[in-house]
Specification:
The protein starts with 15 loop residues before the first helix and ends with a strand. 31% of the residues lie in helices and 20% in strands. It is globular, with a radius of gyration of 13 Å. It has one domain. The protein is of the alpha+beta class and 104 residues long.
Length: 104
């Protein structure tokens, strides 16, 4: 069973809507932000942002939400940003402005 270290979660999480509006910077807001269970994405080996495939190609182990958050937060990772939201982990693909939310 996956656990999230609650000491690492801010007392008040930002909402997905707040994050999307902040990152839109004058661009159109996304029409749809996919929400998917990380376990399902791992089982299929694919997700809307192709993160599972990307991290697999880099030999970066992603088995749970904390692994995903850490992989996106790596200082060498310039194209991805991850945020803890109530639903799970929201990932922002910077070059394309795309979002996905990974849940338990």
């Amino acid at each position: 069973m996956e656990t999230i270290d609650m000491t690492q979660i801010p007392a008040q999480l930002r909402t997905l809507d707040e994050l999307i509006r902040q990152h839109a910077e004058g661009h159109d807001l996304p029409r749809h932000v996919p929400h998917l269970r990380l376990a399902d994405a791992l089982a299929r080996g694919d997700d809307p942002l192709r993160l599972i495939e990307y991290f697999r190609d880099l030999d970066r182990k992603v088995e749970n939400l904390e692994d995903l958050f850490a992989a996106c937060a790596d200082p060498d990772e310039e194209e991805l940003e991850a945020f803890r939201v109530e639903e799970g982990i929201a990932v922002y693909l910077v070059p394309d402005g795309q979002w996905a939310v990974f849940t338990k």
